[in-house]
Amino acid sequence: MFRTVKELVEIAESENILISEVMIRQEMDVKNLSREEVYAQMEKNLNVMEKAVEDGLKGVKSVTGLTGGDAVLIQNYMKEKTPLSGNLMMDAVSKAMGTNEVNAAMGTICATPTAGSAGCVPGTLFAVKNQLNPTRDQMIRYLFTSGAFGFVVANNAFISGAAGGCQAEVGSAGAMASAAIVEMAGGTPQQCADAFAITLKNMLGLVCDPVAGLVEVPCVKRNAAGSSLAIVSADMALAGVTSRIPCDEVIGAMYRIGKQMPSVLRETGEGGLAATPTGQALKEKIFGMSVSKE
Amino acid sequence: MKYNSVFDIIGPVMIGPSSSHTAGAARIGKAARNLFGEEPKWARIYLYESFAKTYKGHGTDFALVGGLLGFDTDDPRMSKALDIAKNKNMDVEFIEESAGTNHPNTARLIIGNDTDEIELVGISIGGGKVEITELNGFELRLSGNHPAILIMHNDRFGAIASVTKILAKYEINIGHMEVNRKDVGKEALMVIEVDQNVDDTVLKELESADHIIQIAKIVS
């Protein structure tokens, strides 16, 4: 069983297989399942992601009214204008946000690795898909590659905002997506690791400060940041840019930063954006009397 | 290793908005139902800290009840769980606690029917993973993600050996095991998380082992 990204890349290189294949074989081994069973379970997750993206692009609204509809605005903008950052980029951003808008509206999503960061992996997948034209098999592999890197983060650091801030959540999700894009685009296992490291480095220190403690503001737009950064880092790695700090050391840095982060900035809804005058006013509006009790 | 499956990372499929406040809450509710062994007729649910402050916005309340009704994290009926419970005459009460706890996302559930009740504490640790940390006054650590056997026994020599011997005979692998007792020589609880579901013949044999009082099974 691999514990580090270094081990993960070494297994892939020495056996001349993809990162996704390393993850598939490990899952079969650990759970004592056939390849077909492992694939079927992941395909179910893929189908849920696809449906969530579709629902998000149709337009949804959360119970509180704080989020919803932004994915539609971006898709409309793409039809009317040429986005400065390109169609693929804005497509990924809108699909990532759409997924999280569905989540905020209590729709069905697949946590990747959490609900609050569930947009980055599917958002990038269903945007990159239009350019790379992957088979269904390659789309399922995209999720195994993402999962392989997330697996290392979860076991060596953390993946929840309450434990390590948003760097642990959207930071991990965006970095997982980077690695998966690289594999789908034909990059090497080491390039997957470099892309992962570049994204996570640029997410270090990101706090978890949701308004009213809800998975809405700024979570939806942070998924836009995670997915766009994922594509930029993947392109950099595919161009041959490497991370000067090895991937595992970046994960270690993320862990230490999370440990040093005060609890008001770890999903308690007490610091950062949640503590702004507008953040406080929104909280009072949503929870009414319960605010005065605290 | 805290996580051993890719589906801990890519998954669970769930009703939003929060893996810890919604999916985790549903799993705590379902673990409680499994521990009780049937659908409870009533439930008193105490919420602490973050659960107490934000449960309505996150749907923690309907998710906990959805779990008590046996719903999985992705059950489309989840957001209607409170109404469904009402129609079934399940009496549910939520109590917001102001006391502090060790973990920000904590719920204490007391559930029962006309004759029996159980009390347990569940925490939601992130990404939908949960732990049951207390059962009827016993401290324990149970993830609810794996099948488990809970064995009430008398704190005597050989009680544990008699159980593990039977599990070994049926080639059942133990993933995590702990033993907790109220006092020396008194009632004790064995919690054994295993890799596969345990069938009834094994349970029957365990029930008749030395010093065993009662057995409950949790299927994952």
TrEMBL record, chain A:
Its cofactor is [4Fe-4S] cluster. InterPro entries: Fe-S_L-Ser, Ser_deHydtase-like_asu, Ser_deHydtase_asu. GO terms for molecular function: 4 iron, 4 sulfur cluster binding; L-serine ammonia-lyase activity; metal ion binding. GO terms for biological process: gluconeogenesis. It catalyses: L-serine = pyruvate + NH4(+). Its EC number is 4.3.1.17. The keyword Lyase applies. It is an enzyme of class 4 (lyase). Keywords: 4Fe-4S, Gluconeogenesis, Iron, Iron-sulfur, Lyase, Metal-binding. Pathway: Carbohydrate biosynthesis; gluconeogenesis. Belongs to the iron-sulfur dependent L-serine dehydratase family. PANTHER family: L-SERINE DEHYDRATASE, L-SERINE DEHYDRATASE 1. This is L-serine dehydratase.
Automatic annotation (TrEMBL), chain B:
One of its GO terms (molecular function) is 4 iron, 4 sulfur cluster binding. Pfam families: ACT, SDH_beta. Residues 148-220 form the ACT domain. It catalyses: L-serine = pyruvate + NH4(+). InterPro entries: ACT-like_dom_sf (IPR045865), ACT_dom (IPR002912), ASB_dom_sf (IPR029009), Fe-S_L-Ser (IPR051318), Fe-S_L-Ser_bsu (IPR004643), Ser_deHydtase_bsu (IPR005131). Its cofactor is [4Fe-4S] cluster. It comes from the Bacteria. One of its GO terms (biological process) is gluconeogenesis. Keywords: 4Fe-4S, Gluconeogenesis, Iron, Iron-sulfur, Lyase, Metal-binding. Pathway: Carbohydrate biosynthesis; gluconeogenesis. The keyword Metal-binding applies. The keyword 4Fe-4S applies. Belongs to the iron-sulfur dependent L-serine dehydratase family. This is L-serine deaminase. It comes from Virgibacillus oceani. The lineage of its organism: Bacteria, Bacillati, Bacillota, Bacilli, Bacillales.
